[in-house]
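User: Is it possible to get a 3D structure for a protein together with its bound compound? The compound here is adenosine monophosphate. I've pasted both below.
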Amino acid sequence: MKIILIGIQGSGKSTQGNLLQKVLNVPFLATGQIFREMVKEENETAEYIKKIMYAGELIPDEKVLEIVSSYLSRPEYKNGYIIDGFPRTVKQAESFKEDIDAVVYLKVSDTEALRRIAARNDQARKDETTEAIKRRIELFHTETEPVIEYYREKERLVEVDGELQIEEINKAIIKKLKV
Ligand code: AMP
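Assistant: Yes, that's possible. Here is the predicted structure of the complex:
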């Protein structure tokens, strides 16, 4: 199965992605995680990506598409995957030619998302400054919400209340995916 997880920062995409990969038996891939690994290297691309990430801006579509395609061409993704953090713009969605089974939208209010982000203390996420978080939430509304509508029109959207308990959300997703 090929699944996209979509939701505002703090909506629980990585928590649900990790749970879901065990049920569906396909790997979980998060673009934010790929870029966090890339910025650890010492080269021009790393510096370029780091600046964008720390400002909470989006990496240009062409670059993202190139990286995502190169990852998805690896043999481990041949039988499917769960992807988090992509597509984040309509341009990315339109250019992504894979036949996706479902786009799971974890619906969480800005207030709840901010509460969760404030509560987590993840040292690996050095790019999560207050300014960057504010900008990411803004960009979710302007750039990523239209992606949700794009998949709704394509009848691929599965909407789940992301404010329930972790286990309940997991059950709701599985039920809606009919797996
Ligand atoms: P995330 O952990 O998904 O919030 O991603 C962290 C950062 O990586 C984002 O703020 C962007 O700078 C970058 N990023 C991740 N995925 C994408 C994407 N699909 N398009 C553009 N930028 C992305």
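The first strand starts at residue 2 and ends at 6. The mean pLDDT is 94.
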